[in-house]
Amino acid sequence: MRLRNAVAATAAMAVILVPATAALAEPSSPAVQAATPKPAPEKVLNTKATLAAPLPVPNVPNGTSADKVLVIGLDGLRYDRIAPAAAPNLDALIAGGTFGASLLYTNPMAATSSGPGWSTIATGVWPDKHKVKDNNFTGKRYDLYPDFLSRIEGTNPALSTYAAVDWKPLGDQGTFGTAIDARIVLDGDTAGYPAEDERLTQVSEQVLRDRNPDAAFVYLGNIDIAGHNSGAGSQAYLNAIGTIDGQVGRLVNAIKARPTYASERWTVIVATDHGHTDAGGHGGSTIEERRTFVLASGPGIAAGATPSDTRLVDVAATAFAQLHLPLPAGLDGKSVAVRATDPFDGLTLGTRVGETGIPATVQGFTHTPPTGWAVNNTSMPSGGVEEWRGWSFTTDEFWSRAQRDQWRELFVRGRGVFAVADSDEWDDASHGSGTFDSTLVSAPYSVAGRTTAKIDYATHYRQEGTQKAQVLVSFDGGPATVVKSYTADTVSQAESVSVAVPSGAATMTVRFRYYDASNNWYWAIDDLRVS
């Protein structure tokens, strides 16, 4: 294929290599809202494997850091299909690094599609900030939340950055922007993803081995095409994983072949934008479509760890941490090397009791609070669905499997295990007279010598009818005082409440009371911190 716009690079100029034929197919997916244009298809399912001429190696500026990061983006890789595939390179990275699986949001926050998924990975924030809800990219706010490579350039322009993608909208839409030192944008929709993945791998091998980037991103798209064409449950999907795994291995080996490798500290991060159904396809709200992961291997990152508190927004934060750069304000992620201190994540979870729609093998709930915490159910009626009688501790998968498409999937700022009061699900079985009334009580926090205390937590609340939700505090076992009430939907927000500390007070306890509720909605809480 003849290329156009092959711009000679300088230290301040991006290299953009775009195929001459770049038109995308007409959009065909249903609209999320009737007033917006129809979303573009995920990909043109082009499996052409005939290679065009090799790409010229871009003139990547000479990097300045011994700490270096490579992020590899594998489109549409459902993480539970790695093990049955022949994927020794991914297996080795998993064994030598930290592998955190998680689930995506769904509509109305965003579709489980590539536009929102790669925007979340690139920017380090959730769709309620970057505003990409589908593959139209309508309303995108990359001006406020640029990709992590562009942010690295803005933080330290002496660092060298490189990006190579073959899903063309990632370049055209600015998901990975023009501030990047060297940028290759191909069109897998037109030329075929097997062919373009291979060309990107070839040129990226040379960049990683023979040039000196400090931070790089390489995208490979053909696993997603196999998912669409044959389904994630197929042998063809496993074969595609095997092929991409070989390309991942070549990129890693190119790093190890660098003449300066022994004096460098490389981190390799692998992530995906969404999952796939067994039959093929994504964009919806099934667990299989929502499956994502972040895999990281490098200095200070635990080998063989499988934490429950990793989220897709952690890719950008991990890149900054591994380069020893300050974390930009407003990011939703954290480094995968940092473990959460939330006591909920240490709880032992069990399987379903009354929720027969949840698979019996899914472990995901308990009524037993962390040490020092308590759940006050003295005003709860008897009966109801056992999993949700009073405050429970659960996971994204267990809770959202109880009932899909009621916004439970949108608690993106919850991590691992979180607390839930769900009167809607509790009311699905017969119970005694009265309404849902349960209070979650924290362990006491020391406030000795302070005049104020700040309460931080993640919350996800849906309002309906007469239900009420209150945050209360008490000092040294005294009466509880309301410091925050919820009367309207508050979708996955980080909250911060300042509280005056009475003179002489030694401890403060925080309470979350959800009451006067029946077949209404729910309240979820996570990561309570007092400072």
Sum this structure up briefly:
This protein is an alpha+beta fold. It is built from 13 helices and 21 strands. α5 links the parallel β5 (161-165) and β6.
User: Which stretches are low in confidence, meaning pLDDT under 50 for 5 or more residues running?
Assistant: 1-16, 18-37
SS strand fraction: 15-25%
Mean pLDDT: 92
What is the radius of gyration?
Answer: 24 Å
The portion of residues assigned to helices is 10-25%
Largest sheet: 7 strands, mixed
Distance between the termini: 59 Å
Give me some keywords for this one.
531 residues; alpha+beta; 7-stranded mixed beta sheet; 24% strand
Walkthrough of the structure:
This protein is an alpha+beta fold. Helix content is 21%, strand content 24%. The protein has 13 helices and 21 strands. The protein has a 7-stranded mixed sheet, sandwiched between helices. Strands 10-12-13-21-16-19 form a 6-stranded antiparallel sheet. Helix 5 (169-172) links the parallel strand 5 (161-165) and strand 6 (182-185). Helix 7 runs parallel beside helix 9 (235-256) and helix 8 runs antiparallel to helix 9 (235-256).
How does the SSE layout of this entry go?
Layout lengths: L2 E2 L13 E2 L47 E8 L13 H9 L1 E6 L10 H10 L3 H4 L17 H8 L5 E5 L3 H4 L9 E4 L2 H4 L1 H18 L4 E6 L1 H9 L4 H22 L8 E7 L15 H4 E7 L16 H9 L42 E2 L7 E3 L15 E4 H7 L14 E6 H4 L9 E6 L3 E2 L5 E11 L5 E8 L5 E6 L3 E11 L6 E11 L4 E9 L1
Parallel strand pairs: 3-7, 3-8, 5-6, 5-7
Antiparallel strand pairs: 1-2, 4-9, 8-9, 10-12, 11-14, 12-13, 13-21, 14-20, 15-20, 16-19, 16-21, 17-18, 17-20
